[in-house]
Fold each of these.
Amino acid sequence: MRVADLSTPALVADGGALARNLDTMAAALPGARLRPHVKAHKCTALAREQAARGHVTFTGATPRELVGLAHAGLGTDLLLANQCVDLQRLAALVATGARVTVAVDSPATIDAAARAGVGEVLVDVNVGMPRCGCAVEDAGTIADTARARGLAVRGVMGYEGHVVGLEGRDERVEKTATAMDRLAAAHALVGGDVVSAGGTGTYDINTLATEIQAGSYALMDTAYAKLDVPFDLTFGVVATVIHVAPKYAVADCGLKALAMDHGQPDMDDGDVWFCSDEHITFAPRAAVNVGDRVIVRPAHVDPTMAKHEALHIAAGPGLDAEIIDTWAIDLRGWDA
Amino acid sequence: MRVADLSTPALVADGGALARNLDTMAAALPGARLRPHVKAHKCTALAREQAARGHVTFTGATPRELVGLAHAGLGTDLLLANQCVDLQRLAALVATGARVTVAVDSPATIDAAARAGVGEVLVDVNVGMPRCGCAVEDAGTIADTARARGLAVRGVMGYEGHVVGLEGRDERVEKTATAMDRLAAAHALVGGDVVSAGGTGTYDINTLATEIQAGSYALMDTAYAKLDVPFDLTFGVVATVIHVAPKYAVADCGLKALAMDHGQPDMDDGDVWFCSDEHITFAPRAAVNVGDRVIVRPAHVDPTMAKHEALHIAAGPGLDAEIIDTWAIDLRGWDA
């Protein structure tokens, strides 16, 4: 079966480009220097490819993602890089038997981790983005509180999420330095040997971190493709043209199949006008007919993956490539 | 179990408000005057509530939605209000034994319907939104082509999607009239006794249509709630506060749980700053603590439903209401 033979809409990645992205990152950040973030792909088959290249420590944003990795035999060292006070879900994660480390940033999150039987934590520090993470000056107290509850404190985490997507490299370098000055100050108060941070946009800029939490580098998206990173856009949503008008055409891939939070998708052979639930209206650059296939490139990979049940792996780019594998996107949802 | 006891993020609707919305619409457009659009909720349990109020004809945007309705015993009269050239999916829909009508707007879509064994069609007409639908002047030819292929032409369809969401009623009235002038002209060329059109924003304005395809009216969303329609916002995503900072707080409900295409969600007790994959950062209007629950109101109901596996029905509004039922969102995805 070729890409053009798939029922649509369907997610497809060029397996060769994906392998090159994985190899490039494994060469730059070998082994545990990379802790791949599975929130970007939610796919144990892709995590296995990362593990095969030497990365056996993983990052997740939900207990469900990490429970799925543990059940797939990928539970060597799992980090929940997020705050969680759901005792049932934390306990279910612990019950997998995997090595589990959880981010904490408050007495309440420490209490939840301790009560759920979690053994190890990282102190999550706010390095400049208004989201989770304690203030730098509170990091030592948080670590002391965790240790008093019997938790081993492995170190600190601080995600420069306000920096990773900036297009200018100089700006990323400067703002990463500022963010990591904060994380270093917190680390001095907390101790431990782990400094976990970073993403695809700062994987080679963030030199403080002992481990980088990149995820998007594997499949990429049009937002990250604007940066000067050595990873190629590998994936898109294949759609079928269902209507052709004089100035535009319509394909059967809409905002239920595409993440819209980073803006409109792009198309290889057309200019996108707008997306509806199940449609994309676009101006084709060459004549198209009803029944033709087109490839739509989402702006944000993570939430696009979460909308689909499967990722098809093709032998190459384009519509004529053979489908060589189909991977379940099995870490979706929130219930384990 | 109360709303506040759910694991989060979780979709919840106030069952009383939902019943009132369903009753209000059934009184305004009884029986087949409404052909409920299931793309808005993707939930056979909710479709059963609509059928219990007398609406036994349904609209869908995908074959998968309609196959699911047919398997649930709701296949009295199903309209695929979308173009489809996937023979396998069309044939699977026909194979359910349900009465199936399909929208066509070109020789290619007519050919697909005929080859898949579809018996009845509506001619889809462009009434002003650049999406599917033939030009008014081509509608008669399309109907003739369909009849020549042995298809029964039941009438016309023309969705004024560029009008239904406009906030000013006068503007909706004026633009619906313009759109329906086009549909009436096409109807004169096509014949048949069905004129299918409309949505929640024009359900009482569009008087040309013999049947209205509204769907959002049942659950509603913050975009439709700005209009002067007699339907209340019933649903939201319950989330848990996981971090509290001096000027903001963070809850565990992000853009993987919320449709973002109509813009930011609202919150009952906070001002939303931004959403990340699994987080919402907001300024609470009263003090909150880690572990507290909050309710987030998505701007667009249809794609929000498509992100969740279940809709919990509560006995009333708010966090203390008892959960009285849980409905599977079972019409998601594209594979039947």
Amino acid sequence: MKKGVVLLSGGLDSATVVAMAKDQGYEIHALTVIYGQRHDVEIEASRRVAAQLGVASHRFVSVDLGQIGGSALTAEIDVPKGRDESTMESEIPVTYVPARNTIMLSIALGLAEVLEAEAIFAGMNAVDYSGYPDCRPEYVDAFARMAALATKAGVEGNPVTIITPLMNLRKADIIREGIRLGVDYSLTHSCYDPVEGRACGECDACLIRIRAFSELGMTDPALA
Amino acid sequence: MKKGVVLLSGGLDSATVVAMAKDQGYEIHALTVIYGQRHDVEIEASRRVAAQLGVASHRFVSVDLGQIGGSALTAEIDVPKGRDESTMESEIPVTYVPARNTIMLSIALGLAEVLEAEAIFAGMNAVDYSGYPDCRPEYVDAFARMAALATKAGVEGNPVTIITPLMNLRKADIIREGIRLGVDYSLTHSCYDPVEGRACGECDACLIRIRAFSELGMTDPALA
């Protein structure tokens, strides 16, 4: 069975990616990269999602990015609340973690090398967060070219493939596909600023989810 | 003053890189990435080197790669001792940490983004460790192209430069240049398997150093 390493944060997007990778016939090796402050809630959500969807293995790697700073997710900066969509789209938010996708994909590359996995799956999306340079297809392609040169497998002619199945999907379309594949979104966690382990309903991540579920005539089950 | 992020392990190579980057007129922001088991000795050596050479800042980022495994440096595998040079060169050693350079450069990229640094310096060397795919110039070039697409600075036309000044130098030439620039190699630490904080003198890293100092008619001051 072909192996796929899936970056699993426990959020809506990455849960959907696990389901899509399984649907493509991969044996799933989930990797949760933990950085900054959001430890407990994320670990719990990623465990629930992995258990619900069924994975061959699930690993946790901590990276202490607090020393690097520059983000509301790793430093002491307030997470913005109640922003409208045009503000979200026009600026790189303070919740942006510098080089986050590159760091997470790099750790996934290490795991893929050890497991001799054929693919790395990640939930980058160019639609909802157009402000992030490291969410674009040209970035992902450049990472794949670098990875092919970085590893023994690549040098031997079997480079790992980087698959980003959500890249061009709108959030509502991601949810529709996930529901079709049996994802239980009540188990997922996307909030940037949870209060006692529950989603705040007001940060960018919560608002994007709420709107997408509402577009489908549903209530976000993580907020129910 | 132009800023440079320097990956500093506390070993011979990275200490030399700090001195070379300073010599090129950069303000040095040292970054020590800590993975696997070698915590204390490495932290101590990198602190000593940073203090001796003078840096503007020094940060430590821990990455818990133990869950990924696949290396004598992060898992419970014996470090080989007393190997001859042809064996070292012909195989990827068990001390190889999967995707290590990619992970370290990615974290450096995050720091460079926050500091708005112009360059990242790293001690990759294609001569002594020809078995590592991620020590070749074509790998470093591919990383730089990826980094240019990953970051705001890159998108705005000011991509960070990745400088690997040791790439084509033999170990003895690295040491000669370091001595010229005032590096105190007694402070550095390269050993894969230190005993009570001291270099073992028998692992690949120790043997390569010993031979290079001997070629210059010197004794490795870290073993003195």
